[in-house]
Amino acid sequence: MLTDAQLQATLETLIDDNSGQPYGAVWNVVADDSRVHVTLTLGYPAQKQQAQLEAKIKDLMADARNLVLDIDFQVKSQATQGSIPGMKGVKNIIAVASGKGGVGKSTTTVNLALAMAKEGARVGILDADIYGPSQGMLLGFEEGTRPQVREDKFFVPPTAFGVQVMSMAFLTTKDTPLAWRGPMVTGALMQILTQTDWDNLDYLFIDMPPGTGDIQLTLAQKVPVAGSVVVTTPQDIALLDARRGIEMFNKVNIPVLGVVENMSTHICSNCGHHEAIFGDEGGASLAKEYNVNVLGKLPLSLAIREQSDAGRPIVVNAPESDTAGIYQSIARKLGATLASQQNEQTAMPIIGMSDD
Question: Whole-prediction pTM value?
Answer without folding.
Answer: 0.89
